[in-house]
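quick one before i forget lol
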Amino acid sequence: MNSIPATALGLAEHGLPVLPLRADKRPFGNCRACEDLACGGRPNMATPGPCVCPWPCHGWAAATTDPVVLASPQWTAAWRRARAIGYHPGGAGVTVVDLDNADAVAWARETLPPTATVTTTRGEHWIYQGAMRSVNGVRAGVDLKSLMSYARWLGPGTGTLTELPDVVRALAEKKPSTVRPAPRRVTAPVPAGGGECRHRTPAYLERGIAMAEQRITAATSAVHATVYRTFLAVLSAHGRCGCLTEAHIGRLFTAAQAKGESPRHCTDAWANARTALGM
């Protein structure tokens, strides 16, 4: 018998926003109505809470404590397919220091104050009371998971939850070891459209661009592919109605360059996305 739905409901009753995870430990993909973020995403992706879609869409933003949502037909179907439980640490007011190997665990034991600890398949989760922004790769084998992120539920662990220390907050402010050149302004053709966007509101477009920037910024691998798919999604949703401007495109290119993409690759990815959509 699958105990995952019952466990998830119990966690939600104790205030932990949960979401179903697939066998690869990742959230379920968006439903057809939300593919490529055509729905515009949640009204405010910067705050914790469930997404507006009845399906468990949009990764961490789908995490919820609402028993009605958790017991809905869409979520019940997802829970039956789930192989693990995820939760939104920031929504629960905590931060997870994800230690991915033995060296990272040894560093934490020498550097960080004791707190609640959960054993993972490759290392440990150190959990502190208090939320902060999530940052991957703050040092070798160490990720910070809190706001706008999710972690896998692996049990209550051991130890007592303690206050989020300044030493952890400071990790998020450290500059990456690899210095990247400042983004260069790159011009790209703005798709021709019918002028005023009649089927999308300005707020819808702003959400779409902000989510596209966040998707690129959050990429930890396959950056080239992520940039291309993000450009494709933006053009698919907004490229034919005339609402995209050079400023919008510039924001996407700046986000891509901040991840190490060259101006040339940005231009090529944009051109390839337009070609794929027949623009």
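fyi Residues 43-49, 175-180 have pLDDT under 50 and may be disordered.
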